[in-house]
Amino acid sequence: MILSMTGYGKATVELPSEKIHAEIRSLNSKAMDLSTRLAPVFREKEMEIRTLVSQTLERGKADLTLWIDKDEASAATPIHTELAKGYYRELSALAEELRIDPPQDWLMLLTRMPDVLAKADTAELTDEEWQAARRALEEALAQHTAFRRQEGAALELKFREKIQNITQLLASIAPYEAERVEKIRARIVEGIEKLGAADYDRNRLEQEMIYYIEKLDINEEKQRLANHLKYFVETLETGHGQGKKLGFIAQEMGREINTLGSKSNQAEMQNIVVRMKDELEQIKEQVLNVL
Q1: Which of 195, 217, 239 is the last residue of a domain?
Q2: pTM (whole model) above 0.85
Q3: Which of 14, 44, 234, 276 is the most buried (most CB within 10 A)?
């Protein structure tokens, strides 16, 4: 089954004092294009995280977010108690030396002193947090893959419908093809009859008629297009990672349909070719989303 490059996955792993969240979104792209937004504590693991995500996603423009929600108790700004005590001793001694009254609200004053309420920006990633983050990533990636598989199934149904439509349109050309050859032959004969008694080489004329009609023959183009249609369906059934290959096959189908249009030389056949091009254009648009 093919996979879409469009996907979404989100997972949360809970620890006693915090929750670790992972979220992944992706769209179509020719190569792997990964953007990350990581909580500072995970920066040291960025390369490992990128490798894990890239190996799973393979291709596409993806956005990864990995963050931590701490509970209120653990998220509270820590108070540097010993530092506050030091400030208290120094300020008390200064007040006594200067013979001034000590402040009435020591707590307010001390909490405003430098670094007494300093958020710990240099927190280290614990092994427990990293293992939880990996689980969150893996669960988010699994959800993302399931989303891609679901979207891929919808794309496959659409492709099969369009391929079937082109196949039916190709079969509908046959009656007009035979009629077209007879009309061309009749037109040439009519032109010759208008020449009256003019002298011409009948053998050479017959050869030229055969050559002209053969140039308008579309059997080879029909056969090649039928083969491409069959190959497209076979490729759909080989599994994911076939997006580029399906795109190449669609290009070859387009070449054969264009040649049919240039050789058709008949209104009904040209109308059929236009409808085939419309179906193929929808395939080309959607094949860009296939992994």
Answers
A1: 217
A2: no
A3: 276
